[in-house]
Amino acid sequence: MQRLMSVFLITIFASIALVGCVVASHGVPAPVEDRTISKPRAQSASTTKAAVAPVISENAAKPGFYTVKPNDTLIRIGLDQGQNWRDIVRWNNIDNPNNLEVGQVLRVVPPGTTVNPEGVVVRPVTSPTTTTSNQPLAATEPQKPANAVAPQPPTEPTEDAITFVWPAQGGVLTGFDEAKNKGIDISGKAGDPVLASADGRVVYAGSGLRGYGNLIILKHNNTFLTAYAHNQTILVREDQSVKRGQKIAEMGNSDADQVKLHFEIRRTGKPVDPLKFLAAR
Fold first, then answer.
1. Which of 30, 85, 120, 152 would you label with 140, given CA atoms 20 to 30 Å apart?
2. What is the DSSP letter of 114?
3. Which residues of 238-260 are buried (b: 16+ CB within 10 A; e: fewer)?
């Protein structure tokens, strides 16, 4: 009886093994879990470079053009270049003045002008037209007296023609330091008058330049700008003409640690020591 039971069990195990072989021979796969993770396709070097490479302008680094840097604003660029920021907008056909891009190249001198290596704007001079004649020159022109003086072409006022007056009555708190203080700080009380230092036109009036508070910028000619910062109240508007000694603001401490007037003189955009230009008191 025991022997028969053993034979029966052997037969059953053999049958099970035979079924497994048949299934395997018919190609039915055992279930598996796919643990592979698909990796993103790497961009080609040329594609990546094209995506981040700045647009190079043929005018970059040329005199009369400026390349935008991080944190630049048109007001700051205008002050540093000695220009009205609205003129820069017009010269460059800028649609949104608040949307400058790093690396963008801007024209900062009027179209049709050039800048010499010293940074001075040179305007084109139109030569007078001349006519030719077959007759001798003596026959076509009257004789000039021997002591006659040739007429001189009209000239624009030179920078020496401007006399700057003190914009406030207080003493000097902090002197000029091109690296740390681009002008002088003048003491006073809140509400003291701030005066235009010379005849000019308001090219900026507002608080859009960090560190200056309520700021006024006057343009006096193609060479000079003056800046009046930390005002309590601004009394002029942009594009308004002002006269030397005219009250343009009231002293305050906007964006400053105390009441004072921060006063700058810019020559072709470069800050200079106001004490070398202000008239003696």
1. 152
2. E
3. eeeebeeebebbbbbebbbeebb
- How far is 121 from 269, CA to CA, in rounded Å? 12
Distance CA 271, CA 176 (A): 9
How far is CA 176 from each of CA 181, 186, 210, 274, rounded to the nearest angstrom? 6, 11, 19, 8
pLDDT tens-digit profile of 223-232?
Answer: 999 999 999 9
- pLDDT tens profile 37-65: 333 333 333 333 333 334 456 788 889 99
Burial of residue 57 (CB within 10 Å: 0-12, 13-18, 19+) is middle
pTM: 0.66
Q: Which of these three, 113, 135, 170, is where a domain ends?
A: 113
The burial class, CB within 10 Å (0-12 / 13-18 / 19+), for 127 is exposed
Lowest mean pLDDT among 97-111, 196-210, 246-260: 97-111
Kindly give the pairing relationship between strand 200-206 and strand 214-219: antiparallel
CATH for 72 = 3.10.350.10
Distance, in Å, from the CA atom of 226 to the CA atom of 218, rounded to the nearest integer, reads: 5
% the chain with pLDDT above 90: 56
Q: Is residue 123 in some structural domain?
A: no
Residue that has been written with the tokens 């509400």 in this structure: 191
Regarding beta strands 270-272 and 261-267, do their DSSP bridges make them parallel or antiparallel, or are they unpaired? antiparallel
